[in-house]
From TrEMBL, chains A, B, C, D, E, F:
It comes from Stygiolobus caldivivus. Belongs to the PNP/UDP phosphorylase family. It comes from the Archaea. GO terms for molecular function: pentosyltransferase activity. This is 5'-methylthioadenosine phosphorylase. PANTHER family: FI09636P-RELATED, URIDINE PHOSPHORYLASE. One of its GO terms (biological process) is nucleoside catabolic process. Coiled coil: none annotated. Keywords: Glycosyltransferase, Transferase.
Amino acid sequence: MLVLNEKVPEKVILVEEPEIAELISKYMTTVKSVKRRGYSVYIGIYGGSPIAIASHGVGGPSLALILEELIQYGARIVLRYGTAGATECSNVGKYLIPVGVSHHVYSSLYQRSRGDTSLSLYPDLEMAYKLYSFLKQRRRNVIYGSVFQSDDFYAESHISSDDAVDMETGTLFLVSRLKKVRSASLVILANCRGRDWIDYEKLYETDAQLVLDFMSSFEGEAERI
Amino acid sequence: MLVLNEKVPEKVILVEEPEIAELISKYMTTVKSVKRRGYSVYIGIYGGSPIAIASHGVGGPSLALILEELIQYGARIVLRYGTAGATECSNVGKYLIPVGVSHHVYSSLYQRSRGDTSLSLYPDLEMAYKLYSFLKQRRRNVIYGSVFQSDDFYAESHISSDDAVDMETGTLFLVSRLKKVRSASLVILANCRGRDWIDYEKLYETDAQLVLDFMSSFEGEAERI
Amino acid sequence: MLVLNEKVPEKVILVEEPEIAELISKYMTTVKSVKRRGYSVYIGIYGGSPIAIASHGVGGPSLALILEELIQYGARIVLRYGTAGATECSNVGKYLIPVGVSHHVYSSLYQRSRGDTSLSLYPDLEMAYKLYSFLKQRRRNVIYGSVFQSDDFYAESHISSDDAVDMETGTLFLVSRLKKVRSASLVILANCRGRDWIDYEKLYETDAQLVLDFMSSFEGEAERI
Amino acid sequence: MLVLNEKVPEKVILVEEPEIAELISKYMTTVKSVKRRGYSVYIGIYGGSPIAIASHGVGGPSLALILEELIQYGARIVLRYGTAGATECSNVGKYLIPVGVSHHVYSSLYQRSRGDTSLSLYPDLEMAYKLYSFLKQRRRNVIYGSVFQSDDFYAESHISSDDAVDMETGTLFLVSRLKKVRSASLVILANCRGRDWIDYEKLYETDAQLVLDFMSSFEGEAERI
Amino acid sequence: MLVLNEKVPEKVILVEEPEIAELISKYMTTVKSVKRRGYSVYIGIYGGSPIAIASHGVGGPSLALILEELIQYGARIVLRYGTAGATECSNVGKYLIPVGVSHHVYSSLYQRSRGDTSLSLYPDLEMAYKLYSFLKQRRRNVIYGSVFQSDDFYAESHISSDDAVDMETGTLFLVSRLKKVRSASLVILANCRGRDWIDYEKLYETDAQLVLDFMSSFEGEAERI
Amino acid sequence: MLVLNEKVPEKVILVEEPEIAELISKYMTTVKSVKRRGYSVYIGIYGGSPIAIASHGVGGPSLALILEELIQYGARIVLRYGTAGATECSNVGKYLIPVGVSHHVYSSLYQRSRGDTSLSLYPDLEMAYKLYSFLKQRRRNVIYGSVFQSDDFYAESHISSDDAVDMETGTLFLVSRLKKVRSASLVILANCRGRDWIDYEKLYETDAQLVLDFMSSFEGEAERI
C-alpha cells in the first residue's frame, strides 16, 4: 500500500483537503495521524466510536487510491463530506445528498469496471435516507438529487444535466459497490456553476460535530444484497 | 397520443402484463378501463385515493410509450410492480427495491437522453426507503440493491454484475427523472437466471392490497431538487 | 418458454397489436390461439398452407422475445407486417419494404450481438424482391428503401437519415440472421413524422388476404449462405 | 478533383487493381483512359451502352475518393466487381452478392456519416436481385449473404460473423446511399480466410463479358425512395 | 504475401503514388522493381546504402497492406514522404514533421489494435528530431506538430483540431509501434483545407536527393524501449 | 482560481507529492511558497532563471486543475518529473521520456476535448529530444517510448500495451497542446507492475540539480506550429 499500512476504523469520513481533515479531526480524540503522498489520515474516537477522517485530494483517481487502501484496512461505512457546484443558483448554501450519479460515458470511472456495461452508482439506501432525515430533523437545509461526476475542474462549464457537479461521488459509489461497503455522500453546494463561492469552511466548522454525531450513531440495519 | 386521451390519477402502478393489471384492478373500485395497442389501463379508487393501474408490456421501449402518455395526462408518483430474475439463487422469492440501475453502455436507454453522458438512474429516495420500511414492517422479505436493465430476454445469460435483471426499471427511472415525477420499482425475484420460476401470480394476489395500501397512503414530503 | 410451448408453422406473420393479429386471423382458418403475457398468437391454415399470426408488441425487446420462441418452435419464414412513420410526407399511405436498417450505435440491438461489431441487418434478398414484385403487379403503391429502428416512440423527432422510422425491423433482421431464418418486413407508412395518421386499420382489412396470399405461395428457392 | 475532370458514363464498374481494369476494358471499345494517382479509369462503349471501368485501390478510403469523383461526373449505377475472402471454405470459387455489410463499430465508415447513428448499408434491391437472377440463369455458382468490411488486410483473422470479408463494399453502399445512386457488389470468393487462393484472374477473363452484358442491359425500373 | 515475395532493404521511403515512387527512384541506382495490385516498389542503392521506395496508395488500409509486407521482408527504418493539407493557410508550402496523430475515435486505426485502448501514435524521437534538424540546417522551411489522420478525402472539411490532415501517418506509426520498427513522417503542406494546391511534384524533384541523403546517412543510435 | 492568484515563472517543474516539491525546492532560492487545497507551489530562482516547482497530486483531474492555473498565471515550459511503473522489469531504475501516450478510449482525458476525436498527445519534440540528449551526455540511463495513462492506481494490472504506466502524462500533454505551451515528461521507472519499488526519493535527491540545470538552460528554439 502506498499510504497506509495499519488497521483503520470501520467508519470513515472522506474530505477533500488536508486542511479540512485537520479541521474536523479537532472535534474528535485523535489517536494517530498519517501524512503521506499528499494524503492526511486521522484515526480517532468520537462519542465512543472509532472513526477515521481522511483527505482524498482532487478527482476520482485520487479518491480511489486512498479509498481502496482504507477498505483494505477495515473501512466498511464511508461518508464523503465535501463540496459541489450547484446547477441552480438558488440551491447554493444547501446540503445535497446524491442518490444518482451521471457521468460522461467516457470517463475515469471506466477503468475500474471496464467492459460494455455502465455500472449503477448509488448510495446505501438506508444510510442516505437516514442521513437526510437526521439533517432535516436538525433543521439543516438539505435536499437530495443527482450529481454529475466531473473529471476536469476547468472543463465542466457544459455540464447541466444534473443538480450539481462534483469530482468524486461516482468513484466513491463505484468502489463501494465493488467492495461491498456502505457509502453515502453529503455535499455542500458551495458555488453556482463555478461562481459565487460561499465560505464553506465556516459550514464545516459549524456542522463537523453534527456529521460526526451521525457517523458515530449510524448502524446499518437493512439487509442489502 | 396513441393509447390515452384523458386525465389519469397522480398515482400509477405499472405492471408487466394485461392479466396482472386486471388482477390488481379487482382490488380497487374501477371507474374506467382502456385497452388499446396491447396496453390495458384501469382507472379507479382505492382507500379514497384515485389510482391508475397500467400494463407496460415487454422492455424499455414499450414501457416508455405508455409512461410518457400517463405523465402527459397527470401521473406524478409511479411505482413499477413487476418481476425480475435474481443473480443469486438464494434470493428467489424475495422482493427487491432497486436503488441503482446498470445497463449496457449501448442500450435502448440512449435514445431518450443522447449525447455523451450516461444519465443517473435512481428512484425517489423517500419513496424507495418508505416502501422498503413499509414492507419490512409488514414482515415481507424485502431487500434493496442494483438491477441490470436488459434489452433482450433471450440474450441475457451473460449478465451478472448486479443483484437482478429486469427489462424496464432503467427506463422508468430515466423518464421519471427527465419529466420530474417521483418513481420507485418493486420487483419480485421470480426466477434465478431464467430458471426455477416461482408462482409469482400467487404473490400478486397476496400482496396486491399491500401495494395499493402503500400507494394510497404515500405522500412525498421531501423537498427534492 | 414464457409464451409458447408447442410447434408453430414455418411461415409466420408478425403484427404489432393483438387487435391486428385478430383481424388478420379472421381471413384464415384458425386452428389454435394463445394469449399470454400480452402476446396473441393464432395458428391456422390459409390456401392450404399452415401459417401463424402473432402480435409482437412495442419495440425490439418485445419482438425479440416472441420471435425467439416462434423460431424455437419451428418458424423459418417470417414477415413483419406493420406500420412506420415516413420521413417524407409525400410517401404517407405507401408500402415500404426495408432493405437496410439504420440505428443508433447505442441501441437495444447491441445486447444480442455484443462485441465491437455492428452486424449487418438485411432481409432475405429473394423474399424482399418477390414481395416487392408481387405487390407491384397487384398495383399496390410500394417502394423500397431504408428504415431507422427507434427505441423510444416519444423521443424520435431527431431521426431523419432514413426513409422511415419503425421500432422493430432491425431486431427482426438481427434475430433472423443469427438464427438463419428468412425474413422480410412490409410497413405501411402510416404517418409523417408522428403526425397525419392515416386509417391504417382499413388498409389491413383491404390487404390482409393479399399478404396471406404472398406468404402461402412464397417458397424460397435461392441458395443463400 | 484529384483524378478526374470530365464527364463519365452513368454506368460504372469498379474493380480492385489497375491490371483488372485494363483486362476488362479490353472487352469494350475504349474511348478514353485516365491514369492518375494510382487510379486507372477507362471510358468506353459496350453493347451500345457507355460504360466506365475504374480501379479503386485497396480499402474504403481509397474507393471513396474515386467513387465520389465518378458520381460528381455522372455515375448513377455502380457495380463493384472484385474479390473477397470466404468464411466457409466450401464457398471458395463461388460468386457472392452482398445484401448486408457488417463492420467494426469503430471503422473508416464513420467519417462520412459521423454522429451517433450506424447508417444502413445495402445494395439497390432490384439491381442486386436481377444480378443474382441473371447469373443464376447463366448457371454461375452464385449466392447472396453478408460481408464484413475490413479496414486492414493483415489484421482480419478474427472476423467470422459474416459470409465473407472484403475491404470496400460497405463504403460503396454508404457513398451510394448518401449520393442517391444505385449500386451492387459482386465478389468472387477467392480464398478461404486468407489461404487457398484460386486463380481469380482467369475468372475475370471468363466472365468479363457476362458482367458487361448485365451492366449494359440493366435499367433500374423500381421506384425507390 | 499479396505483393512482395523477396527481401527488401532495412531503409524504406513510402510515397503516395506510383508516379512519385518512380520519380524518386530515378535518383538512386535501381536494382529491381515490382508492380503488383496497384503498388510500385523500387529496390536500389543510394550513397552506398540499400534503400527501397514504395508507393502506398490512398488511405490507412492501403498503406497497412504494403507496410506489413515490407516489414515482413526486412524493413526496419521507414519514412513516409508525402503530402498533407494544412489547417492554417499560411503554412502551405512548408514541411511538417508530425509528432502526434489525432483521429476519430471511430476510425480505420481500430482494427489493428482493437480492445478498449487508444494506442499511442508517435514517431521515433531521434529520427524525427534529427530529420527536423537536418532539414533546418539545409534551410528548408520545416516545422513540427500534429496531424489528423483522415479516412475519407471528400469528407474531411470538419477537421480542424490539428495542424494538418493526412490519410496515412497514423497507420504508419501504429504498425511501426506494433512491429517495433523506427518510423517518421515528412509531409509537404500542399494545400490549405483542400484548396490552393501548390505544385508539389516540383518539390519532390528538388528535394528527392535531400531525403535520400537523410535516409542513407541516418543510423538510429538511441536505445529505445 | 482555487489555488493560485499571482504570476508564476514561465518554467515549471511538476512533481507528484508535496514532499518532493519541498525536496527539490531546497536546491533553488525560494522566493515564495503556496500551500492550498493539498497543492504545494514553490516559486524561486535557479541558475539565474525563475522557476516554479508545484505538486500535482494523484491522477489527471488533479494535475489538470493546478496546470490550468499555472498556465493562466504565466507558465510556458512545463516538465513533469515523476515516477511510473515499468512494464518490463529490466527497465526499473531507468528514466523514461514518453513520446506517446496510450489510454483507455473511455478515460478522464475525454472531458477536456469531448467530441468524436481522440486528440494527439505528444511532448514538444525539441524539448523531449534535448532532455534525452542532455541526460544521455550526463550518463544517465535514459530511454524513450510510450506510457499508458491510468485513471485508477488499484485497477491497472491489465495494462501492458506500453512501456510504462503513469497517471498524469496524458493530461499534461493534452492541456499543453490545447493551451499551446511546451511540455515534456521525465519519469523514473520506480517499480515493475506495482512491485519491487526502488528508493526513488534518493534519485530525486541525486538528480534534482540536474533537472533544474536542464530547465534553467533550455530555450525552445524550434518553430512549432
